[in-house]
Design goal:
single chain, 2 domains, 58% helix, 0% strand
């Protein structure tokens, strides 16, 4: 039994010419044209492979980023109990000075006599206010 093949793509040019009524030189020319048309699309095939490679790399990077985000969120979950302290007291600003200066609760006048005597009236007022 002889084996029959379907199609002529895998046959050499000499077998292609013998099975048809075309001359061998015309069949070889057709084979050469088909071969050059495949070469012509080399750039497109190369660009297709490059695009597929870039798509694969971006997919891997997205997967890596998702795993990184999950692990970071899981790690930081235990730190969500951090308390934040802030002041709720209202501070009055001193109108005579710059707007960033706070007005003192207790106003103490200092004099040259206090300095020469070695006394600190501000410390004494603070201690008196703290003890009361």
């Amino acid at each position: 039994m002889s084996r029959q093949t379907v199609g002529t793509a895998n046959r050499p040019a000499s077998q292609f010419a013998s099975s048809t009524s075309e001359p061998a030189s015309l069949a070889a020319a057709n084979w050469a044209v088909a071969d050059t048309s495949l070469r012509r699309f080399r750039v497109f095939r190369l660009s297709m492979h490059v695009v597929n490679l870039l798509l694969f790399v971006s997919l891997c990077a997205s997967l890596y980023a998702a795993v990184w985000e999950y692990s970071t969120r899981r790690y930081l979950k235990g730190f969500s109990d951090i308390g934040v302290q802030y002041s709720t007291k209202f501070f009055k600003l001193d109108k005579k000075h710059d707007a960033t200066v706070l007005a003192p609760d207790i106003v103490v006048q200092r004099s040259l006599a206090d300095v020469t005597a070695g006394r600190d009236p501000v410390l004494e007022a603070a201690l008196k206010h703290a003890l009361n």
